[in-house]
Design a protein that fits this description.
Helix content: 25-40%
Number of strands: 28
Largest sheet: 8 strands, mixed
Structural class: alpha/beta
Distance between the termini: 15 Å
Strand content: 25-35%
Shape: globular
Strand order of the largest sheet: 13-17-15-18-20-27-26-25
């Protein structure tokens, strides 16, 4: 078996490559085909834990994880063999075939391609031998002529796979026809023939007004515009990179909500249906190296909840819940948080009885101290925020695992989680424990999930290592009385969207 390959290229980042690739995965799977996703290189701090070689676990980008689920395939590291996780503006941790490579991390950008290409090609070849169709996602733009000589993710992959390519532009930005033509024109002549169709994504308005531009573009390039995809809000998938909204967001496609009696009270105490007890505003601290922010996508769909990305103390005003998310550079992000004055604002929020949740790196920040004897975080030791009597020591090796856990007796504001079984994943270098000196004086954090979650004595501050809490149906229901649509329903909706948008026969011709 040698899979036919369809590749989604874009005129820019944010054009809609990940969304379209996910939709294509589900569409072809619905045709009874065995489908796998592939992206040679992804740059993102949103990662998932999946099987790797020799029974180990490894990391891939979240987009390829969701694409695998859309394809009805088991995610594995071959689907995203190279993952770059930014740790600073000019430095990224290199993850090859699911594992951190310190040697590759130390190499300059242009010096890596010769070392990583053989494993990228082998991963793609292996997937092709096991599947009928491989849906490949490019990165950025294939016309980044300054990077073509070291390319391992766009044209080099298209040639290796002999892929038929779609070129996607975000028409909502304006200038889409120029973007499509300019990208096509900058491609080497031999690669232009791989472009099977242009896709106009995120269109709003009267499609008849597009004429005669698609016809003129085809006359210039020989490439037809095969789809005009409408702008769609609340499609159910997280954005791949960056904070997915510039401002506060409220539900576009509400989840099914049950009685407010199931909702979490603002400062502890018993439940009730008073609207004042329902979480209305959740502020997520958006530090520079925020990671795994895609896990907050379900909160966008909870009825009545507004999600705010907080970068200043003023952004916490009125919030009933403050979340410190994961971080790719915990000590550096903690220093940034202090420089903004957010440390005092979070402490004041907690002192008033407001809920605080720390996830992974956020949990580590909530403790008393960060100890880094091995230079993992490069900034050395640092004091924490002091909201939990814990200490975290960084180790050279990461913990990577899928985890099932059950909350024990959770007190106060988070008591709705008591007894709830949750499924998630762990990606962390730090190991957290009770602060020995504070424990000796009787100041001990409540261990609500052994080794994974701790709570302060007042019950309003909770820290967990488990990513994916809000993606777990039981947790979402316990906290908000809401039920999320299944991922299968989301993927089916994406497939139906492109089936309406593409010209008749266009999707079939890509693999014909």
């Amino acid at each position: 078996m040698t899979a036919r390959c369809v590749m989604v290229l874009g005129t820019s980042s944010g054009a809609g490559k990940s969304w379209l690739a996910t939709a294509l995965c589900r569409h072809y799977a619905q045709q009874g085909l065995k489908v796998a996703p592939f992206k040679a290189q992804n740059m993102s701090n949103n990662a998932r834990v999946v099987p790797a070689a020799e029974g180990r676990m490894g990391e891939i980008g979240s987009a390829q994880y969701f694409q695998a689920l859309a394809a009805r395939a088991v995610p594995d590291v071959r689907m995203n063999p190279l993952l770059l996780k930014p740790e600073a503006d000019t430095h990224s941790q290199v993850v090859l075939m699911g594992q951190v490579s310190r040697e590759l991390t130390a190499l300059p950008w242009r010096g890596r391609s010769a070392h990583v290409w053989p494993q990228i090609a082998a991963a793609l070849d292996a997937l092709r031998t096991e599947h009928d169709v491989v849906v490949i996602e490019g990165a950025g733009s294939p016309a980044e002529i300054n990077l073509m000589d070291s390319d391992v993710v766009n044209l080099r992959v298209a040639r290796h796979a002999d892929a038929r390519c779609l070129l996607v532009a975000d028409i909502d930005r304006g200038g889409a026809f120029a973007h499509l033509y300019g990208t096509w024109a900058l491609l080497p002549e031999g690669d232009r023939a791989r472009i099977a169709g242009f896709v106009l994504n995120k269109f709003r308005g009267d499609a008849s007004l597009l004429a005669p531009a698609p016809e003129q573009l085809q006359a210039l390039t020989g490439v037809p515009t095969v789809a005009v995809v409408p702008m769609r809000f609340g499609h159910g998938l997280p954005e791949e990179d960056g904070v997915f909204d510039a401002a506060a967001t409220q539900a576009h496609a509400p989840l099914q909500a049950e009685s407010a009696a199931s909702a979490l009270p603002t400062g502890g105490g018993s439940y009730g249906n008073d609207s004042e007890t329902v979480p209305r505003r959740i502020a997520v601290i958006a530090y520079p190296r925020i990671s795994n922010l895609d896990e907050f996508q379900p909160l966008k769909n909870v009825p009545g909840v507004t999600l705010t990305w907080a970068r200043t103390p003023a952004a916490l005003h009125g919030a009933d819940t403050v979340i410190l998310p994961g971080s790719k550079a915990t000590a550096a992000d903690l220093a940034w948080l202090r420089a903004q004055g957010l440390d005092a604002a979070i402490a004041q929020h907690a002192a008033r009885g407001g809920r605080v949740l720390g996830i992974c790196g956020g949990l580590q920040m909530l403790g008393e101290a960060l100890i880094d004897l091995h230079g993992v975080e490069s900034l050395g030791n640092a004091p924490g925020l002091g909201l939990l009597p814990l200490v975290t020591s960084f180790e050279p090796d990461k913990t990577l695992r899928r985890t099932q856990a059950r909350f024990g007796d959770v007190a106060g504001a988070w008591s709705a989680l008591s007894g709830v079984a949750a499924v998630g994943y762990e990606i962390h270098a730090g190991q957290t424990a009770q602060h020995p000196a504070m424990a000796a004086q009787g100041d001990v954090a409540r261990d609500v999930v052994p080794g994974l979650a701790w709570q302060n004595a007042a019950g309003n501050v909770l820290g967990v290592y488990l990513h994916g809490l809000f993606e777990d149906a039981a947790v979402l229901h316990a906290l908000f009385g809401a039920r999320a649509p299944s991922l299968d329903a989301v993927f089916d909706g994406l497939a139906a969207e492109i089936e309406r948008a593409f010209a008749p026969g266009a999707l079939a011709s890509l693999i014909g």
